[in-house]
């Protein structure tokens, strides 16, 4: 087993959704594998080879268009703990102020020695205006750069003083619609631990519905938007195992 580099979400029997920048080390599918069905990185689980990598054609190693798909060599067998996550249609987007959750691989405490291994975590976040993100991150702008966060991105701020320390890129931003968990975003970038005034940046999945459909013809999308998002519920460890995979560099 090699090095764990990113998280990802299972959206199909043979496809995993993740962030494009996770794959900067190599574009060779043989360099990666995906582990599913575990709650801690150190646990043994089902390990699947990657046979094809689809990176958005407009991704240029910056934040914009930060989305990728991995095709697995073998189909994933569904179980009570391994199921695909739902994806939104182009018009299904969380409104400002909606409460959602980031779930995925992270360390809860980086100050202890030895550091704990990555495990599946969840943290409540609130969808906020991108103008706030723009203001908070403007010190990172390149010279003459007027726009840092494009229409394909979302911003979300952690709630209740919680933090997902050293969370993996590619983790899932999920919101509950009509009692259905839908992945609205892919973790692209966030600041270091305990920097609560810096919101997380996420690739909007609804923005890339057509692109995903182009890569996977039989993937399904959810369009049943209710009048408002339901109040968040604490995700159990069982729910956390659903739809999540871990990307490894071999």
Automatic annotation (TrEMBL):
<comment type="similarity">
    <text>Belongs to the peptidase S1 family. CLIP subfamily.</text>
</comment>
<feature type="transmembrane region" description="Helical">
    <location>
        <begin position="229"/>
        <end position="249"/>
    </location>
</feature>
<dbReference type="InterPro" id="IPR043504">
    <property type="entry name" value="Peptidase_S1_PA_chymotrypsin"/>
</dbReference>
<dbReference type="Pfam" id="PF00089">
    <property type="entry name" value="Trypsin"/>
</dbReference>
<dbReference type="GO" id="GO:0006508">
    <property type="term" value="P:proteolysis"/>
</dbReference>
<dbReference type="InterPro" id="IPR018114">
    <property type="entry name" value="TRYPSIN_HIS"/>
</dbReference>
<dbReference type="InterPro" id="IPR051487">
    <property type="entry name" value="Ser/Thr_Proteases_Immune/Dev"/>
</dbReference>
<keyword id="KW-0472">Membrane</keyword>
<keyword id="KW-1133">Transmembrane helix</keyword>
<feature type="domain" description="Peptidase S1">
    <location>
        <begin position="1"/>
        <end position="217"/>
    </location>
</feature>
<dbReference type="InterPro" id="IPR001254">
    <property type="entry name" value="Trypsin_dom"/>
</dbReference>
<dbReference type="GO" id="GO:0004252">
    <property type="term" value="F:serine-type endopeptidase activity"/>
</dbReference>
<keyword id="KW-1015">Disulfide bond</keyword>
<dbReference type="InterPro" id="IPR009003">
    <property type="entry name" value="Peptidase_S1_PA"/>
</dbReference>
<protein>
    <submittedName>
        <fullName>Serine protease 46-like</fullName>
    </submittedName>
</protein>
<keyword id="KW-0812">Transmembrane</keyword>
<dbReference type="InterPro" id="IPR001314">
    <property type="entry name" value="Peptidase_S1A"/>
</dbReference>
